[in-house]
Amino acid sequence: MLELEGLRKRYGDRVALDGVTFSVRPGELYGFVGTNGAGKTTTMRITLGVLEPDAGTVRYQGEPVDTATRRTFGYMPEERGLYPRMRVGDQLRYLAELHGLSRGDADRAARYWMERLAVIERVEDRVEALSLGNQQRVQLAAALVHHPAVLVLDEPFSGLDPVGVDSLAEVLRERAAAGVPVVFSSHQLELVERLCDSIGIIYRGRMVATGTVDELRASRSERVLRIGTDAAAGWADAVPGVVSAEYGPATTLVLAPDADDQTVLDAARALGPVREFTPLRASLTELFREAVADNGGDGAAVGAGDPEGVAA
Ligand SMILES: Nc1ncnc2c1ncn2[C@@H]1O[C@H](COP(=O)(O)OP(=O)(O)OP(=O)(O)O)[C@@H](O)[C@H]1O
Asked: 3 pLDDT band (50/70/90 cuts)?
């Protein structure tokens, strides 16, 4: 298990991390999401020892992580870290050997990942001559080439075409199924919702929610129901537990946390037939906006970015 506990980091008077704690179990695919500047990259850099925290610890299998352990981790940094003038194949073999693989194993692993990530035809090309998407694929191969025990990937899906997204998703699922804790950051919330076992939402350097999507849904303060009825607009306004109502071809109701949905159903049935009665599941995007809004942010403006960090 990979455990991050109480990570704190300041850059001058800007607090980037304010006590970040979460853990990723073996075999778990963990999506790390947050607004721009929330602290994802800082957290990942600390996990890989690229950056020292001011406080807090990173543990793997119960022990504080040292340099030797970190060599067994696979990391894809946000700033990308390839040698632009080196050829793709040489680069991957070199990185694998650097992580302790024999020449033969390094060669086999490099070929495997170049094939898997569809860059094998570029084996003799210099990295700088590749398109950004293909550089990204090589960067992913570099994170995977030494059979890492843990994977930490900073925005691995950004810049990939849909085919690349699908093959990377499959690789991550597969690595997780093999028992590797996998954590990756992303702004593509639909993808994260589809792919991940667990999700952590960071906002202004603090974890504001963590758990499975279902757990995040269950902790939501309000519930939403859609009811198909021909009753006149306004029918639900006085029903106990209804916080707000929108009337159209169907009625959409926001219920208070302790409301009894059967009371609402009875009220609707008393007015005529009920064609539909559907609790609406919140998407990760909605859960994300709500978590941000609950923590003093402007949930509606999340897509447009957010003030970076917090002055100390
Ligand atoms: N080297 C640095 N010097 C000063 N401030 C920094 C530095 N690196 C990061 N920060 C600040 O720390 C905060 C967290 O940044 P970080 O890059 O970790 O966020 P992020 O969640 O990865 O953002 P994004 O989604 O935009 O990549 C931001 O306020 C950022 O401006």
From this structure: very high
Name the residue with the closest Cα to ligand 1, atom 1. Answer: 11
Length of the chain: 312
Q: Is the dihedral of CA 196, 197, 203, 209 positive or negative?
A: positive
Atom of ligand 1 nearest to the CA of 12: 4
What is the whole-number distance in angstroms between the Cα of residue 6 and the centre of ligand 1?
18
Question: Burial letters for 198-228: b for 16+ Cβ neighbours within 10 Å, e otherwise?
Answer: bbbbbbbbbbbbbeebeebbeebeebbbebe
Residue 142: name the closest of 177, 108, 92 by CA. Answer: 92
Closest CA to 61 of 19, 22, 24: 24
Element (H, E) at 224: strand 223-229
The closest residue, in CA terms, to atom 12 on ligand 1 is: 16
Q: What is the pTM of this model?
A: 0.84
C-beta of residue 163 within 8 angstroms of C-beta of residue 114: no
Structural domains present in the chain? 2-217 (3.40.50.300), 221-280 (3.30.70)
